[in-house]
Amino acid sequence: MGPDKKPKRFFYWTAKIHICIVILQSKDNFFMKKPVFNPFAERKIKNIIFDLGGVILNIDYHLTINAFKALGLENFDTLFNQAKQVGVFDLLDKGLITPQGFRDEIRRITLSNLTDEQINSAWNAMLLDFPPLRLELLRKVKSSYKTFLLSNTNAIHLEEYNQILHKTFGVDNLSVFFNREYYSHLIHMRKPDAEVFELILNENNLKPEETLFIDDSEQHVEGAKKLGILAHHLNIPNGERIELLFS
Length: 247
Hints:
Elements: H1 5-25, E1 47-50, H2 61-70, H3 87-93, H4 99-110, H5 116-124, H6 132-142, E2 146-151, H7 155-169, E3 180-183, H8 184-187, H9 194-203, E4 211-215, H10 218-225, E5 230-233, H11 242-245
Helix pairs in contact: 2-5, 3-4
């Protein structure tokens, strides 16, 4: 091989390697997807508000619907699903009805004789697990930002996922992972109403333009945006996960 061919071959393979690296770094590459959004890239963010169900806690609404159907309530999905729910569920989420009142109302509107235990079990069926990677992520994020939890939830679910936390990680609740928690049934407000976002901003002296809100519901995200809060819709069906956002 002549001396003039070595540089050419060197540059040829250098170009090939460069092309391979570009392909691997492509966001469409199957093996190495880049996060679609990175809150750390936005320097002015000082505060982060997290949703719970779907974002931190894995949930599946269909499991609750199927559990009630298995108990004989074939049309339960007309009363409750991820997109909408009848009044009794909103009352429970806002703490305007007790768990016992909720169970009594379920029996009334469904004309059933379900026991309290059956209703609780079916209602909690949607609650799955807390991936350890997400909880570790929350610890790390809290060291750099003020972090808050904002959840549309209820007394029955809160008790259940606190039990999940205790059994799995030995902690009694989520308070160790956040500066402050806001549960809809305790503050008597729920997303996407403006008042719930205003409460968090005002009580903690947060500026909307310095605050990021992450939720898996588009309507909740739009509610936050109306107040000038930076908000990201975590698209679970499209494979988005909170751990990818901060990678």
